């Protein structure tokens, strides 16, 4: 599968992000994480050639395979999918950012593995703002408690929050989800907990997420086209 139109797609997306950021009244930069799930290592190579260095994957094993197939010290790998505790051993030293920390049990396992490896792990707390039972993420009511508890884990660096909006074309529903997470972040910062990153928005809703203050968007099909594998 070729990705010859990736630079053009990327240019349009960046223009779109600028437009939505202006509409929301924001001036901060927005990082594009290119989600290469289901596309193969050639998508990673194409993204890097187009100037995208942040690469997102849902599964640890797929990341390990692509790291071997497309090695580059310029790439920053992001784990954006649900992380099982038995896969935590593969995380330290491989990922620039884990977007999907959602429980104290997972935090303790990551802390143990990071301590053993002698490294720190940067994480985002995933919040299930819409309380969808089929999705991972902590409940908004317990997020504050979890984030405060993470402050005592010496090898975990909490950088911000992540969320996914319901799969819908209803912009109001999307907006409520993203705004709720931003307001949670803002209230925590008022209490002295600095959380600069808001990872919000995917290919179908990133414009609304940017308007609501996203600092990171996770984009797959809008950059690479339809996936060839699930």
Describe the structure.
With 230 residues, this protein is an alpha/beta fold. It has one domain (6-224): TIM Barrel (Alpha-Beta Barrel). It is 40% helix and 17% strand. The chain contains eight helices and eight strands. The protein has helices at 6-24, 41-49, 60-69, 104-117, 140-150, 171-190, 206-211, 221-224, and strands spanning 31-35, 54-57, 76-79, 97-101, 121-126, 156-163, 197-200, 216-219. It has an eight-stranded parallel sheet. It is globular. The two termini are 15 Å apart.
The gyration radius over C-alpha positions equals: 17 Å
Q: Kindly report the name of the CATH homologous superfamily.
A: Alanine racemase
- Beta-strand content estimate: 15-25%
As residue ranges, the low-confidence spans are none
Form type: globular
Q: What's the pLDDT, averaged over the residues?
A: 94
The separation of the N and C termini measures: 15 Å
Helix content: 40-55%
How many domains would you count in the coordinates?
1
Output the strand order for the largest sheet: 7-6-5-4-3-2-1-8
Oligomer: single chain
The strand count comes to 8
Largest sheet: 8 strands, parallel
CATH fold assignment: TIM Barrel
Main structural class: alpha/beta
Q: Tally the helices: what do you get?
A: 8
Sketch the topology as an H/E string, one letter per element.
HEHEHEEHEHEHEHEH
CATH architecture: Alpha-Beta Barrel
**What is the CATH top level name?**
Alpha Beta
């Amino acid at each position: 599968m070729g990705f010859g139109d990736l630079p053009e797609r990327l240019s349009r997306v960046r223009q779109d992000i600028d437009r939505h950021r202006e509409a929301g009244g924001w001036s901060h930069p927005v990082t594009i994480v290119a989600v290469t799930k289901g596309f193969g290592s050639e998508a990673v190579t194409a993204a890097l050639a187009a100037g995208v260095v942040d690469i997102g994957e849902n599964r640890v094993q797929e990341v390990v395979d692509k790291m071997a197939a497309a090695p580059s010290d310029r790439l920053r790998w992001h784990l954006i999918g649900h992380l099982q505790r038995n896969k935590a051993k593969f995380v330290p030293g491989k990922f620039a950012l884990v977007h999907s920390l959602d429980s104290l049990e997972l935090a303790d396992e990551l802390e143990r593995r990071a301590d053993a490896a002698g490294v720190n792990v940067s994480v985002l707390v995933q919040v299930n703002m819409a309380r969808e039972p089929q999705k991972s993420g902590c409940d908004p009511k317990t997020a504050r408690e979890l984030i405060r508890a993470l402050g005592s884990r010496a090898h975990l660096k909490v950088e911000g929050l992540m969320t996914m909006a319901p799969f819908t074309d209803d912009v109001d529903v999307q907006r409520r989800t993203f705004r709720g997470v931003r307001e949670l972040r803002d209230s925590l910062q008022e209490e002295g907990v600095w959380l600069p990153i808001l990872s919000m928005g995917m290919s179908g809703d990133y414009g609304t997420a940017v308007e609501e203050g996203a600092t990171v968007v996770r984009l797959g099909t809008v950059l690479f086209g339809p996936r060839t594998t699930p």
